[in-house]
Amino acid sequence: MSFSLKKEKAKTNPKVGGIYLEILKGLTIALIISLILILAMALVVTFVEVSDLVMAIINQVIKVVALLIACIVSFKEKSQGWKKGLILGVIYMIAAYIIFSLMKGQFAFGWHILFDLIAGAIMGIICGMFAVNLRKRN
């Protein structure tokens, strides 16, 4: 009979908390990309007149690009892409709304907020599934 004074390593699940870190990393990346692209768009708009409809379309494209890049970069685990994308999309839309409303100096409430949340959820699901399946191939 032998006794060891070594501590046994506790068996922990490395995935616990991993999904939250992936979403937090994705949120940070998406917000930074959005800020950069919106500042670039603001620079363009100072020289070129752009209609409100075109601006609305460009804003949605910026959100999709930011979410897609954030999902691809941050989702390391090759499962639950739709769930992580859904959560990231909704949280990103809420955070972006708060940050850009603070920058603008006013909070406008209306149906567009609900539309943005639904669009963020759908875009997040699609981007999350794409990012996870892209990683599976590599």
Describe this structure as you would to a colleague.
The protein is mostly helical. It has one domain. The chain is 75% helix and 0% strand. The chain is built from 4 helices and no strands. Helix 1 runs antiparallel to helix 2, helix 1 crosses helix 3 and helix 3 packs across helix 4. The protein is globular, with a radius of gyration of 20 Å. About 5% of the residues have low confidence.
Largest sheet: none
Overall structural class, as computed from helix and strand content, comes to: mainly alpha
Order of helices and strands: HHHH
Give the end-to-end Cα distance, rounded to a whole number of Å.
Answer: 48 Å
Report the uncertain regions: 8-14
Taken from the alpha-carbon principal axes, the silhouette is globular
Compute the CA-based radius of gyration: 20 Å
How many domains in all? 1
Strand content: under 5%
Task: Assign a percent range to the helix content.
Answer: over 70%
Number of helices: 4
Report the strand count. Answer: 0
Give the structure's gist in a few sentences.
75% of the residues lie in helices and 0% in strands. With 138 residues, it is mainly α. Helix 2 packs parallel to helix 4.
